TrEMBL record:
Highest rank taxon of the organism: Bacteria
Protein name as it appears in the record: DNA 3'-5' helicase
CDD domains per record: DEXQc_UvrD, SF1_C_UvrD
Naturally occurring in which organism (per UniProt): Rhodocytophaga aerolata
Domain UvrD-like helicase C-terminal: 290-566
GO molecular function, one term: exonuclease activity
Residue span, UvrD-like helicase ATP-binding domain: 5-289
Reaction equation(s) it catalyzes: Couples ATP hydrolysis with the unwinding of duplex DNA by translocating in the 3'-5' direction; ATP + H2O = ADP + phosphate + H(+)
Family annotation (Pfam families): PcrA_UvrD_tudor, UvrD-helicase, UvrD_C
Length: 742
DNA sequence: ATTTATATCTTTTTT
DNA sequence: AGATATAAAT
């Protein structure tokens, strides 16, 4: 058992303790993944059938990596371990057992966009004020209920919740929840939360089914336990109820998904639920230098709610944490890019040794530009992913509707694509007709003459004939052939092909790439079910870390801190260390404590192995206008012994004044980012500089003289007398003006 | 029904 | 800046 070599005492104990309930509290960088991997390998090595092992991870990517590592120890048998995210594993089970809870196995999975769109339609139908009932808020409320396993009926019955909603001026919330849920069911669709909620329902109402899986999963393991919600916890508890071999691994200090219903309380409850629980703490950090570990500890110790533990390391002291001050967000990008270039040369590192971590996806822009300019390769994880693109969602919607004709959201997306002369009002009418007659969407569409005779019947009829023809193909052919057929015959591909612009070409290629992905899916021997339906379910559960088919691995990684969980890099840059950004304004506004934000900072720091650099900007564009920023309070929370700061100053001032590290220090650029078309006659115009009497040119209205500039709150308006068209009032932030120099 | 212009609003993290 | 809603024009 050579895999036990090189494990420290608690690690080895965690691997060998295979029977009974076990909780592993694993500090950052303490070799948690290694333990989990060897633990599974150990089980298989000792004759446990991989079919009897369930391992729940946070991303599909983590599962795939773990599977590979186990395979190295025990061989291809490891492929049969059930390993994946909660959502993907239970979607798989729900697919098998769908009929027991009144779904068909081809149910659609709604992503957040679909859910929001559905809520938007419902709000419109009920003519509720969407200023009060904000789509995101309504969905959040419903999601919160589902994560706590509060059903529609319980929601409506619960007086506390009702009072709460009324206090928030949303008395109809319960009704919305009910209608939303009815509509999902009618669409034969589940949203993300339903996958967990319905699994709970399945296991509650169908003892035989529960027994089946209890027998199957003799060993249950949960990674990132601190980020599970009640709904997830109850599923695992039920599954492990017979054999009691449940092992959870987590770190309360790294709980960063409370906004999604994650509950650290689960860790505390776990001890109550399993009185003979064994707890093992992994506290030795193998990842980072002393300075990084100590700096991280100094930060997390500011939190009150935490299980005390002592993360320590034998690693070298390492360099101090650097702090970079930039005058603007663009300069921040430049300075970081320069720093990476320099570090890479000095220490002969590869691009893949670096990561840039930020709080929000929107921050990536400045870094992308700076890196591109320097020809440094990078990859962005998350953000607008491949599967979020319009052309991809369009084709997927077609495929979804081919598989499930009651998928309302897919229907809305494709009914007028390509244009069939069926507008918004017609779509609403179809949905309402289905609702009034208490029939499914597809009934109305396929028998349109009967329900909605008239001018629009013909195009709708054509549409349903088209879908029927797709369905015939889907029943005979595999996912790839069906998808290719649909792409060609729906007219989508033709539309894109005719678009000869650069973007159009890219979109066409994206669709081709989707078809390639489907081909790969079909060709992959690990996928037993090669139907379109199976492909669609796997695709809708990809995590942001997953959808990456990038063969070139030597790239700098750019991502949010959330996406960085579980990863490590030699050199980490945490950027945007500014008040209102990190900690985020929303966290500051809601008077909740900043503990989760602080844990997020802790997670970010502990990603670094050798060197950590923090950066902040003094000014930043927000909603198109320049704002001054204050350095983050978190900078002051790092023990100054571990960070390179200017000692002559105190507190936040010190942070602000600290050395600016750069090969080529440069002035911040003053040219506005949006307008640069330098020519002989025109200068790039910062329209905010516009004053009366200036000669300007507008792309449509031609030349004109500015008569008046008026400041209106945050915006400016200009009255301009154009030679050709006379006087116009333009909003400056939108006016595509050029200022004439002469 | 669809396109185009203009006004208004946005304010995190993700399965 | 970018997305989305509304109004007006085609």
């Amino acid at each position: 058992m050579d895999y036990l070599e090189g494990l420290n005492e608690p690690q080895r104990e965690a691997v060998l303790q295979t029977e009974g309930p076990l909780m592993i509290i694993a500090g950052a960088g303490s070799g948690k993944t290694r333990v989990l991997t060897y633990r599974i390998a150990h089980l298989i090595y000792h004759g446990v059938d991989p079919f009897n092992i369930l391992a729940l991870t946070f991303t599909n990517k983590a599962a795939a990596e773990m599977r590979q590592r186990i395979e190295k120890v025990v061989g291809t048998e490891s492929r049969n371990v059930w390993m994946g995210t909660f959502h993907s594993i239970f979607a798989r089970i729900l697919r098998i057992e769908a009929d027991k809870i009144g779904y068909s196995r081809d149910f659609s999975i709604y992503d957040t966009d679909d859910s929001k769109s559905l809520i938007r339609s419902i709000l419109k139908e009920l003519s509720l004020d969407d200023k009060i009932y904000r789509v995101g808020g309504v969905l959040g409320r419903i999601s919160g209920a589902k994560n706590r396993l509060v059903s529609v009926n319980e929601y409506l019955r619960n007086t506390t919740i009702q009072a709460d909603d009324e206090a928030n001026r949303m008395p109809e919330m319960g009704r919305l929840y009910k209608i939303y849920q009815d509509r999902l069911r009618k669409s034969n669709a589940m949203d993300f939360d339903d996958l967990l909620f319905n699994t709970n329902v399945l296991f509650r109402d169908h003892v035989a089914v529960l027994n089946k899986y209890q027998q199957k999963f003799k060993y249950v393991m949960v990674d990132e336990f601190q980020d599970t919600n009640i709904s997830q916890y109850l599923i695992t508890r039920k599954l492990a109820a017979v054999h009691q071999n449940i092992c959870v691994v987590g770190d309360d200090a790294q709980s960063i998904y409370a906004f999604r219903g994650a509950d650290i309380q689960n860790i505390l409850n776990f001890e109550k639920d399993y009185p003979d629980l064994k707890v093992i703490k992994l506290e030795q950090n193998y990842r980072s230098t002393q300075n990084i570990v100590k700096a991280a500890n100094s930060v997390i110790n500011k939190n009150k709610a935490q299980l005390r533990k002592n993360v320590w390391t034998e690693n070298i002291e390492g360099p101090l944490i650097d702090l970079i001050k930039a005058s603007s967000d663009n300069e921040e990008g430049n300075l970081i890019a320069n720093s990476i270039f320099e570090e890479k040369m000095n220490n002969s590192l590869r691009n893949s040794d670096f990561a840039i971590l930020y709080r929000t996806n929107a921050q990536s822009r400045a870094f992308e530009e700076a890196l591109r300019r320097r020809n440094i390769k990078y990859r962005i994880i998350g953000g607008v992913s491949f599967y979020q693109r319009k052309e991809i969602k369009d084709l997927i919607a077609y495929l979804r509707f081919t598989v499930n004709q009651n998928d309302e959201e897919a229907f809305k997306r494709i009914i007028n694509l390509p244009k069939r002369g069926i507008g918004e009002s017609t779509v609403a009418k179809i949905v309402v007709t289905a609702d009034e007659n208490n029939i499914n969407l597809w009934e109305v569409v396929s028998k349109v003459q009967q329900f909605m005779p008239g001018r629009l019947a013909a195009p709708i009829d054509n549409f349903s004939t088209l879908i029927k023809s797709f369905k015939v193909i889907a029943n005979q052919k595999d996912a790839f052939e069906t998808a290719t057929h649909v792409a060609k015959n729906s007219g989508l591909l033709k539309d894109l092909h005719e678009d000869k612009t650069v973007e159009g070409l890219a979109r066409y290629e994206n669709v081709q790439e989707l078809l390639n992905a489907i081909k790969e899916f079909v060709d992959n021997p690990e996928n037993e079910d090669k139907t379109l339906s199976s492909f669609l379910q796997s695709v809708s559960l990809l995590t942001s870390a997953d959808d990456e088919k990038d063969t070139d691995t030597d790239k700098i990684t750019l991502m949010t801190i959330h996406a960085a969980k579980g990863l490590e890099f030699k050199h980490v840059y945490i950027v945007g260390m500014e008040e209102d950004l990190f900690p985020s304004q929303m966290m500051l506004a809601s008077r909740a404590d900043l503990e989760e934000e602080r844990r997020l900072f802790y997670v970010a720091i502990t990603r670094a192995e050798k060197k950590l650099t923090l950066a902040f900007a003094e000014t930043r564009y927000k909603f198109g206008r320049l704002k001054t920023c204050e350095p983050s309070r978190f900078l002051n929370e790092i023990d100054p012994a571990f960070i390179r700061m200017d000692k002559s100053l105190n507190g936040r001032e010190a942070a602000a004044a600290t050395l600016v590290k750069s090969m080529t220090p440069r002035k911040p650029t003053v040219v506005p980012a949006n307008l640069h078309t330098p020519s002989q006659d025109f200068v790039p115009s910062d329209t905010s500089q516009l004053t009366g009497g200036m000669k300007v040119e507008h792309p449509k209205f031609g030349f004109g003289i500015v008569k008046d500039v008026e400041v209106q709150g945050n915006d400016k308006k200009a009255r301009i007398d154009f030679e050709k068209v006379g006087e116009k009032t333009l909003l400056l932030s939108f006016a595509k003006l050029k200022i004439h120099t002469n």
